Amino acid sequence: MRIGIVGGGAAGVMAAYRLCQAGHQAVVFEAEPELGGQAGTFPIAGTRLERFYHHFFHSDRVAFALLEELGLNDRLLWAPDRSAYFWGGRVYPFVTPMDLLRFRPLSWPSRLIFGLQTAYLLFAARWRPLERITAHEWLLKWGTHEVYDRVWGALLRSKFGGYADRVSMAWLWGKLNARRGKSLRGRKEALAYLDGSFQTLFDALAERITALGGEIHLSAPAQQVLVKDGAAQGLRVSEGGRTVDYPFDAVILTVASPIALRLAPDLPEDYAALLRNQPYEGTMTLVLALDRSLIPCYWLSSLV
Predict the structure, then answer these.
(1) Would you say the C-alpha torsion 289, 291, 296, 302 has a positive or negative sign?
(2) What order of strands is seen across the sheet that includes strand 250-253?
(3) Half-sphere exposure of residue 123, counting CA atoms within 13 Å on the CB side?
């Protein structure tokens, strides 16, 4: 099959790679001049840097298997996690149990409750029952308002804004276990980065895709999915200052829901309604090039 893929981020490029391995011809169309999507990079000081923060956890075994498959496992750089909280004009490191004991934003009883909550979620809880309750409900049921307002709630609000109270507890369980799950007992928490940025990974995937007979078109924004008799037949793409229609046996969209709705106005109404009803939260990232560290840690959360 000849398959068109809209979006040159991780989902689009990986789909193309696996499809080409399976004997199909995959063609990727990316609106930007480079691959990467949300993990895209920009040049700075002779190297490349991600537009948004990205790293691997010890538990990202699928990603590590891919890096080994591509011959990139020796490009991993490991660094200890240095997370901290800012409260009352002071930075509190927050990685180890000893950091929790010194964590003055919480009273002693609340420190104990926070420690018990975390230990239970890491070593005893199962995610399926947690799908039926929000993090807000679970954390208040098995904790205190002080713990929630000054730690968990502050983190959820900073990430999800007005939707913080609607986040599933299963999501929080997943985030904690991705960092320090059961399989990581006895292993110091650390984060892995790719030498040369995530662009190293996308470049390697692009090379494999083209070697397998696939194609990658950059600076080629898709305009419309071409449909005939209720099935996708191709893509209309803006490329090189002109509009080109590409025939395909199938089309994969790896773009945000609003863009998918614009590209494929002929989607079945029940599925289109699902896409329309998905709210999005915007994020802005400020990148500073400095000659010294701005803060003494990697991740600083403000408890407000």
Answers:
(1) negative
(2) 215-217, 25-29, 2-6, 250-253
(3) 9
- Domain of residue 44, CATH code: 3.50.50.60
pLDDT at 304: 61
pLDDT > 90 fraction of the chain, expressed in percent and rounded? 67
Phi, psi of 75 (to 5 degrees): -95, 0
Residue 184 — very low, low, confident or very high, per pLDDT cuts 50/70/90?
very low
Torsion angles phi and psi, residue 76, rounded to 5: -75, 135
Whole domain around residue 18: which residue ranges?
2-54+198-267
Beta strand segments in 213-276, E: 215-217, 222-228, 231-239, 242-247, 250-253
Q: Which residue has the higher pLDDT, 80 or 1?
A: 1
Distance of CA 293 to the CA centre of its chain: 25
Query: Cα(9)–Cα(222) distance, rounded to whole angstroms?
Result: 14
Q: Does one domain contain both 97 and 173? A: yes
Give the Å distances, CA to CA, from 58 to 54, 97, 184.
14, 19, 7
User: Under DSSP, is residue 85 helix (H, G, I), strand (E, B) or coil?
Assistant: strand
In the predicted model, is pLDDT for residue 48 greater than 50?
Answer: yes
